[in-house]
Predict the 3D structure of the following.
Amino acid sequence: MHKVTISDETSSGDILSTLELAFAAECITLKDLISARVTQEVEAYQNDTENEQSLVRLSNKEKVLNATLRIRKSNDIDIEKQIYIALSGFQQNAFFVIVNDTQVENLEDEIMIGKETTVSFIKLIPLVGG
């Protein structure tokens, strides 16, 4: 297994959180990376260990269902929908990804995972009134 540590950072470089992902292949696409991250975040949410910096964005219906029932099952949150939302967010510049100090610009760009690989997700915050 090839492991990579992902950091969520501010635009000024402050690290907000980290998580580790493992992949069977040493060469993956950015789409694979984002999909794996979202899947892990959904699982963490279902185990009550949600990360504030998560790419997962629940709908109001999912929030109400989870709050009301307090039951966390794999079918409570649509993982495929969350992956779609995150991939769309990347394409709409809601966040960008830096791998080894280089911005990855396309979902199909390949990423080599090695011992020295660093990955940063940087979320962009819209300006108020802009």
